[in-house]
Specification:
about 350 residues, alpha+beta, Mago nashi protein, 3 domains, 7-stranded mixed β-sheet, 8 helices, about 35% strand, elongated
Length: about 350
Amino acid sequence: MKKLIIMFLLALVILGAGCTENNNDEPEISDDAVITHLTYGAFTLPEMAVQELIVNSTAVNLSYYNYDNELTARYIKPIDRQTRNNLIELFRDNDFTGMDDLYEPQEGQPIVADTGTLEITVVQEGMNKTVKVDPYFDDYMPAGLREINDALVDLRGYALSISEDEAKAIAEEWVMSAPTYSFDGSGLVLVDYQSGVNYPEEHVLTYNFTSSHGGYGNRTDQMVTQVITNHTIEVILYNSNVVSAIIDGVWDEREQVMLEYFRMESGRVNCTEAPWQLWYAEGNINFIKEPTEEELAIAYFGAVHGIEISDFIAEGPENGMCRYSLTSKAEHVPALEQMGWQRV
């Protein structure tokens, strides 16, 4: 009898242990799981209405769709084994499979608008787990989910990144098809390249080229001087797109307009012999009260040179020498440069 009781109790212990294991045993994320980071419903460009990042064992695939669910852009980059392993471990360490299916504002939390909805999904054999955050806002997520989201956002940036050679190819094709170069440009030469360290990087490329006529843009119906003109253009790329293209620091090639205002800087000047001070000392102008140096400089450039300036700043003296800076319209830049001023 005693032996039967012991066997019965042992069976209960084994059965209880089995039930406990089954209740707590969440499926582990496998090495070959496919991970998706999906956002939609945010206030954004129509062609980026739906943004889907898919991470499999070999690549990251970022796709953009419009409101009609039509593909508008796709970017694919390989993923190395270590990065992939780190991502899987991040999901495991933060117990993604044990997270709630939905995270939303709790009582007392602010309600945000126009941020859309986030869905993070893991698909593998025997499991399809989706965690939704609605609205998509960091404060609504537990710390572990925020960490996972941040890692996937970084991979989106990586998918959008381009190499130095790709950046050069994009920039050069853009410059050569733009109005100024395509009108009469030649001899495009890269003179400087810089890029950021974060994804997606900002690429800054500087080129020199030559035009056979003066001026900028398409000058087909304009009176132009037939003179060889050297130009410098600075092109900035972000997300594989040209976001800025400035020629000679004065012409916006994207907008086809002269830049409106420029900051100019003088060299070292004797603090008591600046041109506006000598002009004032000659008695060519009278003020009701003693002018500040800024008032005097504004009056001098306006009366003597017909140049409107603003934001005049004097630095010094240092050993009797000063430096000056001012802001003026693009049309006055050549005249100021002839006087020795330089664009900042």
